[in-house]
């Protein structure tokens, strides 16, 4: 079946694509991760009959970091707490931010601008791909989404618009040439006990080619 590709322009004032090796303080990757890009597409158009796949990422703005401090809660509800409360008939399941707040430093990106190239795979082969393509394009052009797309963290809202793949602007001069960004999170393998998988992100003239999720270049 013919693969139907789309291009979507994303931008925002701030973004944070957290590196998983940073346990306490948030530190962002240099650019958007494929999993974060997939999340934006699913926020605009998700159906159980399709699965979004990211093909490439065009970086259209210089990579700029800034340090901020964010209010976060210090704890989380244990997975077995609801079961124990139901058994005992009592217990405290809520977390009150005013009582459990703490400040943490974060290194985030600012003034980000990307074009994401992607396609979708049909999980239900009785469906016609053109139907999903047209529905997605229509929703993008009308600014419709199921939930507000965001850039890594929910407070960093993402703007988007349809992008003609033949009219993608060139990257800034600072991104020209080849830049090795190291290993980057590709996505989570939800079929294998939620195992994170990584790939070596190499940016050539602002473009990162994303390997297939089950390809040999993707490691766990």
From TrEMBL:
List membrane-spanning regions: none
Origin organism is: Gimesia chilikensis
Q: Which domain of life is it from?
A: Bacteria
Q: What is this protein called?
A: pre-crRNA processing endonuclease
Q: Which NCBIfam families match?
A: cas_Cas5d (TIGR01876), CRISPR_cas5 (TIGR02593)
Entry's Pfam families? Cas_Cas5d
Gene name tied to this protein: cas5
**What Enzyme Commission number does this protein have?**
3.1.-.-
Q: Name one GO biological process term.
A: maintenance of CRISPR repeat elements
**Keyword annotations for this protein?**
Antiviral defense, Endonuclease, Hydrolase, Nuclease, RNA-binding
Q: Return one GO MF term.
A: hydrolase activity
Family statement? Belongs to the CRISPR-associated protein Cas5 family. Subtype I-C/Dvulg subfamily.
